Request: fold
Amino acid sequence: MAANAPARAVGIEPGLRLTDAKATLPDLLCEEIDRAADLKALTALAAWMVRFSPLVALDGEDGLMMETTGCDHLFGGEAALVSGMSDRLVQAGHGHRIAMGGTPGAAHALARATGPGEHPVLPSGREAEGLAHLPMATLRLSPEALILLRRFGLTRIGQLYDIDRKALTRRFRSRQAGDAVCLRLDQALGRRAEPFAPLRPPPEHVEYLPCPEPLTSSEGISDGLQQLTERLCSALAVQGLGAQGFMFSAFRSDGATSAVTVNAARPVRTPAHILRLFREKISRIDAGFGIDLLMLEASRTGSMASGSRPLSGDLAGTGFDAQAVSGLADRITARLGEGSVMLTVRHARRPPDKAERQVAYAGQVPEVEAAPILGPRPVRMLNRPEQVSVMAQVPDGPPLQFIWRRRLRKVLRADGPERIAPEWWTYLPPAPGERGRLPRTRDYYRIEDSDGRRYWVFREGLYGDDRGMDPEWFVQGLFA
Amino acid sequence: MDFANLKAKGLVRTAMAPPAVRAEFPFGLGEPGLHEIAESAYGDRAAATGFLLAAIGQGVCGAWVWVRQTSIVLDTGEVPEAALPGLSSRLRLTVQARTAQAGLWAAEEAVVSGAANLVIAEVEQSDFTSSRRLTLASTRHGVPVVLVLPYSCEGATAAASRWRLASRPSAPNRHDPHAPGHPRWRAVIERCRAVPSATGQAFDLEWNDETLSLSVVSGLAAGPAAPPAATDANRFRLRAG
Reply:
């Protein structure tokens, strides 16, 4: 059971049974713990805290850890950063404890030990004296280890400093448990490094726009986005870079964030193009009671193709203007959704339905290679072969009649077969004594029915090939 | 301001002769302007696609934008790269649109972007307004646009022409009388803005994929092939190999 501050004031402590708590206070309000919703809310808060530092990580079930190295001077020093953060959280209505330390362990311990309204800042290098009087429970130890240490009379972190490590470790049931205590102590004191895993990788380029008055209108947001885009693009231009991913975040004063992302097929840094992509999505930004900070991040940066562009697509070596084409693909993708612009590439597979593959267009230029010489190929290929029931068939020949899509079709002329052997290496041989699916040969026929429509059908398997049931017939495509 | 922008605004374009629509067979198909190719019955989409590729696809290099509505892809599948003319300097982007409106928007966007050399859109329906928009964009930017429509499309259109395509029994195969030969289609020009007198004219066409020629066959020769003798059960002669 968890308890909030008013409950604790009347003596209901976390860990108490619900019936005991109800006995203490009959009209107690209680709610089932919803860890998933807690995690969601904490993650949303973490996204909002990005306004202070890009490196934010979750710390347990109820904490956030931020790496603020290099960010404090933007807010006027470490103390000002912490108190500013605290003020912001109070405004947004979040109860919190906040502390700053030189190591993650020290910050964790201080934040757990501090009272509301205090913002201790422990300078780096003075962890030993700062943590000495803090309770052992703040050191991120397992409950068993805490009980054992309490039995020894060790309740303050400082009491651990002078104890012989070997003697301490030997008291624990296992070596790992003892080592864990030493590890946490060393991490808090900065003697051992502790990895930091932020929720999001830090952006490569980022621009901020604080708003003196909270923004509520969509015009204001668009203007802010335009300013940010121009600044970001000139910053990218200085380094000769372009970016493929852009994320625009709006931080609301009530502690919520909304963000939209756009992607480009190849690195870009033209403000007009980026703004055009954002235009489709910017209405999804929810201004709520006002936005007080706008942020634009660029990711997946890469060097831009420099040099003169062709005057027109026909004059380019490839026959088309790759930059204009990828710009078009970006605009269509921004409106119709990811993966709506595809490119067909050849795929070295034998079954004709797998010989080509659709990949999302990412600015690539298809390589020019001579197509393998094949038999006649239909003008339309069905997404997957559709099974047909064949009325009259002759072994080793095309069907005389078949039903496809509920209509009987009489075959007048046929041509074939084009035999395509299976890809035996894609099948696992069945275990001895079992009957698994075995690769079967396909015989493709080009047939024409009495209506003058032409089909590409195949028979999967041969009669008497001893690989399962009778062969089955499929329609693969339609000839012109 | 770069060239693509100027081109996108319609301020510059590649110099070309004034569009003089010829009053003969293709009636401007494949030239800047909007043309529609429709199925004449359900199942003629392959014929419509084949006619489209035969009539205009052979010489167009550069970037093609092929917009398809998802329902059409699910019903009649894709046009594979293997069926397209084997030009070395061609890039075909396929765009998948959920609705006809989104598909028409993508087609118009491709036309005005100045990046595409040919725009093909397969959508379930199109109305007068969107066809008018596409016509204006297409003539202004000099990019041919073709709409491939289902058999159910009727009614007003602003397109320069609307063709209706049906499959015909294929030409006799010189090497094997039992095998299908060169594909044949019946193309009826339903609407023709430039040559109103041509409306309703029907063409029996034969496509030769070896010489890449689309020829008009006479009505007599285009009749159904003589039915083969049905007496022998094993009438399909297998080709060696």
Q: What stands out?
A: Confidence is low (pLDDT under 50) at residues 228-241 of chain B.
